[in-house]
Amino acid sequence: MIKKIFFPLLIVLVLLLAACSKESSTEKETTIKYWSMWNKGEPQQVVLQKVIDDYEEANPDVKVDVQWMGRQVMSKVRNAALGGNAPDLTEQSGAEVEGTLFKNDLAEPLDELLSMKIPNEGTPFQDVFIDEMLSFYQQDNKTYFIPYEIISSGFHYNENAFKEYGIEPPKTWGEFIKVNEKLKSEGVAPLAQDGNIDFYNAYYFYWLVERLMGPGALLEAAGDKTGETWTKPGYLEAAKKVQELVDNGYFADGYKGSQYPAAQTAWASGDAGMILNGSWLSSETAKYSSKDFVYKAFPFPEMEGGEGSYDQAELYLIGWVAPKGSNKEAVQDFLAFAMQKKYQEKIVSDTKNISTRKDLEAPAALEDFREIVVNASSYHKEYDGLQAEYPQWWKTVFLPLDDKLVFGEITAEEFIKELKKQTKDYWSKQ
Fold first, then answer.
1. Is 12 a residue whose pLDDT tops 50?
2. For 208-254, how does the pLDDT look when each residue is reduced to its tens digit (9 = 90+)?
3. Contacts for 372 with CB less than 8 Å, ≥ 6 apart
4. Same domain for 185 and 60
5. Residue range(s) defining the domain that contains residue 402
6. Are 361 and 220 members of one domain?
7. Where do transmembrane segments lie in this chain (predicted)?
8. CB atoms near residue 263 (< 10 Å)
9. Residues facing 36 on adjacent strands
10. What's the CA gap between 322 and 317, in Å, rounded?
């Protein structure tokens, strides 16, 4: 009788121990759900996949479940976060992350990460960054956004071409106009422009307002539901300067109908003197430029009496964020691993971009842009944050009107009048 009771009891105990052991093993396994902004095959995707592979090898109890979702990832993350099913980690530009997640309390602070040591280096995480990169998108003194790539915008030019024509990079608007005239006199189109890219066209008015009225001015006018802010004289002055470029014929012939990347390709081939664009342009055009082409850049010129200065830079950061409900401990461990110098070097060498690590130089073609950022007196967001803060207004009101201004289809006065009217109409329907 005792044996009959003992053996079934023994079997039960063995099964319980096996179950406990299995449960314990399962509890040790961690999955980081990562939705990336990059597409398969892009240089950044290749670099990040290497980071993920190495991290999983170093941490066999962790699985990084990555999905390469492309540039529209943030709208998908927002919807998932609202439904309580967000990934543990995602990435995008800081301005878009701020407008999508921060403003809706849909992100986790990552402050514990700042004092963590970078694996294989022993340096505190926060100490490897260029000054102000980590703090630029802080909310209430908390760190939510971890940037790993720096982008900015300005005028690109070929150093050898400028030397040939005896041109020095201009610092003021007056000097800039003289450079345009010099190029025209040499039979060279001063400004290349792919007119079918509306947000490239927007660079001129945006930068002029930054230099004339300072950061925040565009955002203020866009958010004024009465539209009255647009009547301030600085906005009209900025529009008049765009019109000046159009009326003087500084844009290359056919720019209105130019289909990307025709204009930037022509510029890299020597058919135009300058192009106002993002710092990514050098990597996009490298295969079209001649062997003696030397990529250089200068900031948008300063305006006499303007509130913005020549050394004030645009800061367009790409980085990571942990949506609400993320496994913060696992995410922070992964990010500390990813910011190792050996991986960030790949951001420079393989993706041809500027790393946020202060101990890494920029690719040769982006040395000027890194200097512009590192030596800046202050920073502002790309497009003053308009496309992230008021995305529908940006798409339906501003960009169509700005195209008309850049194409010479409306005057500066008509542009401001319509901005005032359409901004008021837009907000009345919200």
1. no
2. 999 999 999 999 999 999 999 999 999 999 999 999 999 999 999 99
3. 152, 154, 297, 299, 313
4. no
5. 153-314+382-428
6. no
7. none
8. 27
9. 68
10. 16
